[in-house]
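can u do me a favor
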């Protein structure tokens, strides 16, 4: 009797384990794609842009029948704008939810943190927005980035400056994170090659309430141009306080990000009038000539009430590329998807052509924009320009109140 009872118990236990395992498997009618982004925390504005872009792409793909006869289901993990949470997100998505492809994260800090675990678990990640070049220097065969990196940002900015007044010096103000440090390094190296002297390089801790002392130190060096590596909250604070200390360089330039966010020129969520005349690198605008750009702009406006900056488009494009890789691979298998991404060649997307090099980097062009009357206008290169750059930046005391 005891022996029979033991057998029954073991069978029941095995059944429980089997059912538990089955519950973790994906629904046979859907393909679950993992997403890591920042829905809360200091980078929430960008994470929400990601979410909107992913949702628009998923809805489009599903309306056309999905992939391999199945609908896409987004499995979104909020990293709370924290690298350690992003790492936990990979484990959750892969080990518990059994995704075979991940999109994200948003920030360079979080994205660089997940590369080792992505590589260890052999699950491909498509990076939509993180620009630090050290993300792509790890040699991982599972990391694919569709956006341009910080090195390209510096090159584009210096190309604009050299051909539009040719300042002899500049200052760099950057967040003391992987994102900021990467942009510092890229700009220092590129400026030196271009013969422009870096007269100041000031790091700051993110989300500080007061940068006036920092701005005064930079102002004392009299730079002709300043280059910011900042997210939205800090970009807005820095520009508001630049007016307070009457800091008047000829060029306010930036490595995109906060200075390129859709919210940045707005009064309620950004710098408002203090954003005027700032320059930013940009990887896409609604006016881009790539087929589908205008349609995405309208879809994003309908979902969010805002015209998108490039962050939402990058998420949208990342999912389109991921879906195409799954389709070409013919299965939802990590190895097959990674192999397909290495060879994928998509001549036309709303974000431009997508083709990854041996390191997993897509060659994406970079534009330079200037905020003019609360709107981003392309001012460089000339063959893509829609407005003439206002040079020099008007002094704060001479601007309309």
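np, heres the sequence
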């Amino acid at each position: 009797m005891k022996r029979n009872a033991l057998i029954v118990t073991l069978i029941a236990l095995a059944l429980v384990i089997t059912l538990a395992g089955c519950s973790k498997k994906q629904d046979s009618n859907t393909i679950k794609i993992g997403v890591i982004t920042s829905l809360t925390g200091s980078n929430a504005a960008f994470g929400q842009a990601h979410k909107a872009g992913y949702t628009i792409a998923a809805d489009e793909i599903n309306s056309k029948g999905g992939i391999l006869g199945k609908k896409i289901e987004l499995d979104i993990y909020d990293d709370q704008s924290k690298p350690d949470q992003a790492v936990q997100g990979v484990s959750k998505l892969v080990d518990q939810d059994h995704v075979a492809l991940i999109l994200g994260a948003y920030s360079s800090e979080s994205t660089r943190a997940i590369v080792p675990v992505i590589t260890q678990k052999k699950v491909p990640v498509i990076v939509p927005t993180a620009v630090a070049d050290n993300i792509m220097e790890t040699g991982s065969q599972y990391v694919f980035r569709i956006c341009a990196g910080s090195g390209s940002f510096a090159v584009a900015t210096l190309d604009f400056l050299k051909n539009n007044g040719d300042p002899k010096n500049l200052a760099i103000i950057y967040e003391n994170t992987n994102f900021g440090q990467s942009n510092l390094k890229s700009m220092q190296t590129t400026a030196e090659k271009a013969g422009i002297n870096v007269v100041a390089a000031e790091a700051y801790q993110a989300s500080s309430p007061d940068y006036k002392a920092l701005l005064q130190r930079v102002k004392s060096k009299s730079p002709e141009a300043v280059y910011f590596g900042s997210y939205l909250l800090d970009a807005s604070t820095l520009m508001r306080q630049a007016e307070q200390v009457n800091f008047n360089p000829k060029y306010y330039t930036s490595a995109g990000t906060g200075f390129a966010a859709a919210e940045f020129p707005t009064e309620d969520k950004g710098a408002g009038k203090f954003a005027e005349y700032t320059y930013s690198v940009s990887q896409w605008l609604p006016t881009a000539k790539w087929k589908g750009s205008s349609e995405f702009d309208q879809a994003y406006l309908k979902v969010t009430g805002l015209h998108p900056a490039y962050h939402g488009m990058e998420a949208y494009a990342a999912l389109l590329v991921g879906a195409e890789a799954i389709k070409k691979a013919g299965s939802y298998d990590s190895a097959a998807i990674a192999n397909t991404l290495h060879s994928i060649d998509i001549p036309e997307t709303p974000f431009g052509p997508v083709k990854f090099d041996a390191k997993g980097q897509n060659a994406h062009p970079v534009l330079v924009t200037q905020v003019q009357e609360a709107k981003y206008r392309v001012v460089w290169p000339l063959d893509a320009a829609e407005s003439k750059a206002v040079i020099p930046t008007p002094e704060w005391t001479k601007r309309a109140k």
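Confidence is low (pLDDT under 50) at residues 6-24. hope that helps!!
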